Amino acid sequence: MIKLGIVGANDTSRKHLECLKGGEDFEIIGLFDHDPLQAARFCEQHGLKQFLQYDALLQASEAINIQTPVGMHYRYASQAIMQSVHVMVSGLLSEDIREARHINELAVEAQVNVKVLHHDKLHPEVKTLKRITRKPVYIECNRFQNKVLSISNDSIIFGALLNDIELLCHLVGSPVRKVNTNATRIYNDFVDFVNVRIDFENGCVANMNCGNFENGQNSFIRIFQRNECIRLDLDTFKLIKLIRTESGDFAEVPFHQNRTKPEDVVKMELQQFAQSIKNRQKTSLDTYQTFESLRIAHQVIERIHPSTLFNA
Question: In terms of domains, do 131 and 249 share one?
Answer without folding.
Answer: yes
